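Quick question about two entries, pasted in order.
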Amino acid sequence: MPSATPAPAAAPDLTIVYDRRSLGIVNTSTGPVDLSGLALVQGTTSLPAAHWQQYLSGSLSAFPARDCLQVWSASESADLPAPSGCRYVRGVTYLAGPVMFWTQVSFDVQWNGRALASCTAGAGRCPVDLP
């Protein structure tokens, strides 16, 4: 008797891609998503998606598939490459000093204050499904 083939798992809406130098928020869904309520939070440090608004090419409320936002240290001497899976970097922002919280400890991805995912420091990738 034939066995059923499991359906492939759906891709997450977003993938947070990070290393010791940068962090990217990549829309890994098949269409535009609303990032306007998104924030990365670790303790008292919060990096809301709205932080990119002033540097953004496009809209947070209709953020295109396979595009990304990126953040890295202001002390980098040159632009860093786009994160894996990112077709086009829509916005870059810079952080001063040792504020790159994703390199030290786990952090949360929140939507309007509600936790969606917890990302482990050093893991390098964190899938996130939006509400």
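Here is the second entry:
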Amino acid sequence: MIGGQLHHYAEISAGKQAVVCGDEILRWKDLALLVDSTAQWLAESTPSGCGIALFLENCAALPVLVLAIARSGRVAQVLDPGWPKPVIEQTVTAISSALMISSKATPELDCSIVLLDPHDSLQSLRKLVATFPGKFAPCDAPTLPFYIGFTSGSTGRPKGYRRSQQSWIDSFAIEAKEFGQTSDDIIIAPGALSHSLFLYAAIHALHIGATIILCRNFRPAQVLDAIRQHRGTMLYAVPAQLNLLSGQQQKPGSGNLSSLRYIIASGSKWRESDRSSLRELFPAALFAEFYGASELSFVAVAKEDEHVPSGSVGRAFENVIIKISNTHCKLPGPSQPLQTGEIFVSSPMVFETYAGDGDEADINRDNAFISVGDMGYLDASGFLFLTGRKDRMIVTAGKNLFPEEIEAVLQSHPDIREAAIIGLPDKKRGSRIIAVLDTMPGTTPTSADMIAFARRFLPLYKIPRRYFRALNWPRTRSGKTGFRQLKKQFLADFHEQLP
């Protein structure tokens, strides 16, 4: 089970740091005891198999609670502390939480609420479980759900998805095989633990007896200081965070960052231009990015020492089968390389089901294979290329095009930081495409410049004729462009047209 070796690591690494978050430090000898006491409290105060909502800001107690919930046979429902009141009420009702552990006052809910001090979360948790000392016999049921995370569905509302312990245990094993994590690693996870990438990194670290360094809030200078101070060896991040880190200036005498041996990113594709400054900042680190989804876990990995073709998101992880379907909703059979279709995945790491009011229509299932609606192709060597999202495909003049292909071309222009393609109704073509851009500071590209640049890489029907600069660039919590919000802003005239 997850965290099954906690007491073993507590014995062999008693004084070693297990969890660090700001000024909160939990050592291994104390971690095992606190997890057991918390698991015992949960077992005696809530029904077996129930959901425990964690509405917490980043703090050292959060991963302790997730481990204790798993150990007690309950389900950790990790909510985003940034959600507004109506979303909290709707979500907790939909997923039937039996108990909420919160770092701030919450609205009236149909469940018990326990408050935890986010600034002294470990001491607050110790007081809460002080009458439940001793070892706890864990509920070893790895195939049952233990975690509900949240992603946005087609409506933009949080959508819960269930994961079993076994799916994460299999993910830990395959990731350790790829990147070589061991109990000697000091892993930096600077993002919000309500984001599954960072919670996963934290629980993986504790599962193997390593040290996890968390940040209360993402501040680039503090992340670099944490790497230096703790001699961090692995960094998990989304590309938007890495871009902010790369913009940090090294202070004379501040110490180097050569302890970092791996940077692992997920969320969106890196641009090669973004990596050059990171290479200067982290001279000893290898870069790797993986393609996956909340529902799929790891799918493909691109490691810089494996000569991954330009534009590819990498090869399949060892325990993953990728197939391309050229006819939607049918089992993907053998397909020829370079045929674009819907990407289907089979692996032991995929999720169970959606939770609450999650819409199963967002998933295309066929026997052992599932798809989240991404489109792409495999080359002759088995490297995966993404062409776009099925739900973003635009039909113009009878031809299908994927905005992501055009966006990638426009973003390769030196004056463009981000690009988004929007389809607007058109009586003649069905849809016409326009480009909304986030330009580099101090640059003034024109529509003619952009058209001339795009013609070097794209056929005419894929080239937008009109270009606009966004006045604000919306992002999701994982750092991706918020396309739904961007389109709303455009339709509300929150933009300016390029000359």
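Reply: Residues 328-334 have pLDDT under 50 and may be disordered. The radius of gyration is 23 Å. Hope that helps.
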